[in-house]
């Protein structure tokens, strides 16, 4: 099928279309229906022979689809935390590629991807249609406000591995607040308690912790800022010993003769943690002098 001068004609096979193109009965602005894409496309996009330029005496009618160009203007940078930092240079946003909007019964609709905070301007490419746009649509995109902090923390790791704690600040729709910066405190409680500062950048933050002792940790997030945020629940992390790599003898360096001597043989991993899953038999030799 061919959409010619706002009328649908056809169907034609490719040979018939090429003949009509040669005679000038098919115009560069005409559309053909592409069964593969299930949509109308320009004839030049479908057939390579239709890309040759040709003088036309006819005034082209309005196209059925308009091209929308979005220009995004980034806002001025602002620093929320008191941590000294060098702000990266601001690169002005470039206009996005034109997007075709198909109008049906005089109305076309497009859903844009999530926009960054700033000024957005929507306008119609004048070269794609004879209809004039009264005025561009200007939108003031405000930063999303976070309502919840979620994190990813492993429940169990082998000693020597890295524990990665990842934070994300989400708005009420579950989207990451890309321009949110704030400060949190990660509290780790184990044999050696520690606190560390986490600063979100573009609504996210992460830290890696390495540990070599088999033990249990409790990990919690603390926030003392001004926003009302739902924080994640405290998590328990189990550090598991690695595989047995050597044996050690555990006993007193001195003892009194005549008293039974108790000595333990222990299988340990590469960090000296007791390998509790090891099963086996060893031969203990006693050499007295």
Give a quick set of tags describing it.
5-stranded mixed β-sheet; 4-stranded antiparallel β-sheet; mainly beta; Immunoglobulin-like; 289 residues
Describe what this molecule looks like in 3D.
The protein has two helices and 18 strands. The protein has helices at residues 14-23, 43-46, and strands at 2-4, 7-9, 31-34, 39-42, 65-73, 99-102, 118-124, 137-141, 148-152, 156-158, 162-170, 183-189, 194-199, 204-210, 216-222, 235-240, 246-250, 264-268. Mean pLDDT is 80; it is low at 55-95. A five-stranded mixed β-sheet has the order 10-16-15-12-13, with no helix packed on it. A four-stranded antiparallel β-sheet has the order 2-1-3-4. The protein has 289 residues and is mainly beta. It folds into four domains: 2-51, no CATH class; 65-141, no CATH class; 148-240, Immunoglobulin-like (Sandwich), CATH 2.60.40.1930; 244-289, no CATH class. A hairpin with a 4-residue loop joins strand 12 and strand 13. The chain is 5% helix and 34% strand.
Topology, element by element:
Layout lengths: L1 E3 L2 E3 L4 H10 L7 E4 L4 E4 H4 L18 E9 L25 E4 L15 E7 L12 E5 L6 E5 L3 E3 L3 E9 L12 E7 L4 E6 L4 E7 L5 E7 L12 E6 L5 E5 L13 E5 L21
Parallel strand pairs: 10-16
Antiparallel strand pairs: 1-2, 1-3, 3-4, 5-6, 5-7, 7-8, 9-11, 11-14, 12-13, 12-15, 15-16, 17-18
């Amino acid at each position: 099928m061919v959409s010619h001068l706002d009328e649908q004609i056809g169907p034609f096979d490719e040979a018939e279309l090429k003949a009509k193109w040669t005679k000038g009965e098919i115009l560069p602005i005409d559309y053909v229906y592409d069964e593969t894409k299930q949509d109308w496309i320009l004839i030049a996009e479908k057939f390579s022979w239709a890309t040759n330029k040709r003088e036309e005496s006819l005034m082209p009618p309005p196209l059925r689809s308009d091209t929308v160009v979005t220009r995004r203007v980034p806002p001025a940078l602002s620093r929320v935390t008191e941590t000294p930092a060098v702000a990266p240079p601001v690169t002005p946003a470039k206009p996005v590629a034109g997007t075709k909007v198909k109008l049906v019964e005089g109305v076309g609709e497009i859903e844009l991807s999530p926009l960054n905070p700033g000024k957005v301007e929507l306008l119609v490419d004048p070269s794609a249609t004879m209809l004039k746009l009264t005025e561009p649509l200007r939108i003031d995109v405000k930063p999303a406000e976070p309502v919840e902090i979620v994190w990813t923390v492993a429940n169990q790791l082998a000693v020597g591995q890295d524990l990665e704690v990842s934070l994300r600040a989400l708005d009420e729709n579950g989207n990451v607040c890309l321009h949110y910066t704030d400060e949190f405190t990660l509290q780790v409680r184990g044999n050696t308690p520690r606190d560390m500062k986490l600063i979100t950048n573009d609504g996210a933050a992460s830290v890696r912790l390495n540990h070599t002792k088999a033990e249990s940790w409790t990990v919690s997030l603390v926030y003392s800022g001004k926003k009302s945020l739902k924080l994640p629940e405290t998590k328990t992390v189990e550090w598991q010993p690695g595989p047995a790599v050597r044996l050690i003898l555990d006993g007193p360096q001195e003892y009194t003769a005549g008293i039974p001597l108790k000595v333990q043989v222990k299988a340990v991993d590469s960090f000296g943690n007791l390998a509790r899953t090891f099963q086996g038999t060893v031969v203990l030799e006693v050499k007295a002098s």
